[in-house]
Amino acid sequence: MNTRPHQAQRVRRLLAFVALLATTALSSASAQASPEPEPAAEPPAERPVRAFPRVSLLAPLAADPRWPKFTAGYARYFGDSQATHVATAEAGASIAIVQKDNRRGSWEIGFQGGIFSIFDFAAPSSDLVNADYLGGLTFSYALDSLVFFARLFHQSSHLGDEFILNNDPERINFSFEAVDALVSYVPRPWARVYGGAGAIVRVDPSGLDRWSLQAGAEFRPVTFKTKLRVQLFTAVNLESWQQNNWVPDASIIAGVTLDPIGESSYRVDFLIRYYVGHSPNGQFFTNRIQTLGPAAQLYF
Hints:
There is one protein chain. By secondary structure, this protein is mainly beta. It has a single domain (51-299), classed as Outer membrane phospholipase (ompla), Chain C. The chain has helices at 4-33, 161-167, and strands at 50-51, 70-77, 85-101, 106-120, 128-143, 146-159, 175-188, 191-204, 211-225, 228-241, 248-260, 267-278, 288-299. It has a twelve-stranded antiparallel β-barrel. Strand 9 (211-225) and strand 10 (228-241) form a beta hairpin. It is globular, with a radius of gyration of 34 Å.
């Protein structure tokens, strides 16, 4: 019996099977060596504009006598012939209207408004002596530990009716619009420094010089965390006006801050305030004063 044709068929089948295995192996190796490219990652979604965010980019300047806030305090005036025991009452806030993050930082547009009043405790009816009104628009840009802040604002000053009736003072029609800008830097979580300049763009009376400088520092070296965050702090604010030959006015405060742990929209400061320099109260801006007393400040 001739078995050669059958052997030839078996050899051809075996060779075909081996070729099939080789082809399959090569295809698999090629697929592993050259995987299909992964789809490109989608860029992160851009964060929307936030309306009325809870926290502003620039933290309040605690020692600035004209930073809008809610305040109740007492000041003992030294060497002043017009006042000795004075109460201070302030109502105001710095409100962020819109805020947005971008690739490098965050920007914010906001509004400031405040009333700053003093009362003469020595008068029979605790007369309102002076009230300053402030309102303006703000712009902030935060970049890591830096915050750039600019403001266009109006301030006007008015004497109290009872003070006018009882003292017949020489009234000054004092009001102005100004632009100021500063840079705030936080080198450590417990420290901040800032500085800037300002210019009055319109003023009444018109003969006043227009330029001013501002600088300050805040330190919060001790923090306790319970249900509230408690911080011990001290701060200083210096301002120099061209009108006053650049002689600096100093506001120095020290006390304790209470605020909720985490992101919060308010805080309370209990402090002692010392001020020496030209009066921040508009009708008396030519007077040099020295004051000391306690206060409580509430920020929103």
